[in-house]
Amino acid sequence: MNMKKKKKMMMMMMMMMMMMMMMMMMMMMMMMMMMIVLMMMMMMMMMMMMMMMMMMMMMMMMMMMMMMMMMMMMMMMMMMMMMMLMMMMMMMMMMMMMMMMMMMMMMMMMMMMMMMMMMMMMMMMMIMIMMISCL
User: Fold this and answer.
1) CA angle 16, 18, 21 (to 5 degrees)
2) Segment 81-110 mean pLDDT
3) Is 135 helix (H, G, I), strand (E, B) or coil?
């Protein structure tokens, strides 16, 4: 009787041990699976973050480029305006010079005319004197 009991007990113990082992294995498996899922999730998150960062960088670059373009355009506009102003100034100067030249020419002409008139008068006077003396 004693022996049988012992055997039974042994069997029970063995069964219990097996069950425990199985449970442990199952737990381990579950843990592993969970870990893998977690890892996957982490990887996904990292990828998403990277993508976001890249997008942000791209956006920043685009913005910078746009700003640069705008600045260049502004500079060009300013340059054009300056050129226009300069041209206008030059034109004005030229006009002024032309006017001055014209004035000078007119003055010269007037002077010449006056001189001619004076000469004519002198000639007339001379002729008159000669005529009187002849008489």
Assistant:
1) 110
2) 94
3) coil
